[in-house]
Specification:
The chain has 397 residues and is mainly beta. It is built from 2 helices and 22 strands. Helix content is 6%, strand content 57%. The two termini are 36 Å apart.
Length: 397
């Protein structure tokens, strides 16, 4: 790891010595940048500290990343220029700041691309470690999430390794002004940030289509997007699907989940304004079947965010409310978990949305077979607040 940082430092230092300091700039949406002709280097970082009345403070995420946009190739395809991107992101909490487990576990993203030089959404081929394309919320930036954790159905898929960054190949293309297609071959059982990484990128196939039903214009902030995806992951071994709490990630029960996983996903998000106040309504639903146990996993979330105000002098206040549902059932047992979350995200005044205060409360309801559930509490609450400090702006809309 230290050799990589030494290489990057030497590269940047060499560039800086041969060019004017004016080539460096700060972009509040991308971080510190260096530009020379068609080359661009960007780096960013953020940290998130959580506090609770009855728990010790913890670092939820401490991430740092870089992106190297290499110069465009000297040829065009169908009138478009292309370039290569080198990208990485690490999270130092993955191994407790190098105190636990393997040092390589800090890698969250590490990939190389061949993509449209001006807009990667139009076309990109990626190889390496990146978030699986299946889920909308899984692909939101970790530094820009509305809640401490992602939705329960996603976090709990992580117990079988079918969540987060995976090793493999991704292709995406914008086939029309409103239609976006993605496909991937990734291992989908956990990669570099796991104790036992797996790199058989042909192990899983995923396809997704996202349709922009309504697009924002100069006269309207209204947007409506809908997505559908399907994934088939094979050879899942020695895993259990684990139910966890929504904020503190406490284990609530589990059941074996192995074999071949077939998953269907659907998501929708709608953004508009009431007066000058933005709001977003969204949901995501996921169904998975694990073949060996004939285990069905069904769940998802619905969420509303509303911007109360956004003023430099007073800050930016966005409350949210979310409902999460997860249902496990096989031929002999069943369990249901529900969580109602409420909270606020408040960007502090005069910080350009770089410092955020977060409060979150969750009320849980559990019901099901004692062979799955390991807790006797069928109702319980969690509460936490946190501080996010980021080199890039925390934006809700």
């Amino acid at each position: 790891m230290k050799y990589l940082y030494l290489f990057l430092f030497c590269t940047i230092n060499t560039i800086a010595q041969n060019d004017s300091i004016k080539r460096f700039s700060y972009n509040p949406d991308a971080g510190l940048q260096y530009k020379k002709n068609d080359f661009q280097w960007s780096t960013w970082a953020f940290a998130e500290r959580l506090f609770s009345p009855n728990l010790s403070p913890v670092w939820r995420r401490v991430r740092q990343g870089m992106e190297f946009q290499l110069p465009s190739y000297p040829f065009k395809i169908s009138g478009n220029k292309f370039r290569t991107i080198l990208f990485y992101e690490v999270d130092f909490t993955d191994n407790n700041f190098f105190q636990d487990s393997e040092r390589f576990k800090i890698w969250e993203n590490l990939y190389i691309t061949f993509q449209n030089a001006n807009d990667p959404n139009k076309f990109r081929i990626l190889f390496g470690e990146n978030t699986n394309i299946l889920s909308k919320e899984d692909n939101l930036s970790s530094g820009n999430l509305p809640t401490i954790n992602r939705n329960l159905i996603l976090e709990e898929h992580g117990s079988t390794g079918n969540f987060g960054t995976q090793w493999g190949l991704q292709i995406q293309s914008q086939v029309s002004k409103r239609t976006f297609l993605q496909a991937s071959m990734q291992d989908n059982r956990g990669s570099l940030n796991q104790d036992h990484p797996s790199f058989q990128f042909w192990n899983a196939l995923t396809f997704k289509i996202t349709q922009s039903i309504i697009q924002a214009t100069d006269k309207s902030n209204q947007k409506l997007n809908v997505g559908f995806a399907i994934d088939n992951t094979q050879n899942i071994k020695d895993k259990s699907f684990t139910l966890i709490s929504g904020i503190n990630n406490v284990s609530l029960g589990s059941t074996p989940a192995t074999g071949t996983k077939l998953t269907f996903e659907n998501n929708l998000d709608y953004t508009n304004t009431i007066g000058k106040h933005f709001y977003t309504i969204e949901y995501e639903a996921i169904y998975s079947n694990y073949s060996d146990q004939k285990l069905n996993v069904t769940g998802g979330y619905g969420q509303l965010q509303f911007q109360v105000f956004d003023k430099k002098k007073f800050g930016d206040l966005v409350p949210f409310v979310r409902y999460d549902l997860v249902v496990l059932n096989n031929p002999i047992e069943k369990a249901t978990e529900q969580a109602i979350k409420m909270g606020i995200n408040y960007n502090l005044p005069y910080t350009n949305k770089l410092v955020n205060f977060h409060i979150e409360y969750a009320h849980h309801l559990l019901d099901g077979s004692p062979t799955i559930l390991t807790t006797t509490q069928n109702k319980f609450d969690e509460f936490r607040f946190g501080i996010r400090v980021n080199a890039t702006r925390y934006l809700r809309f």
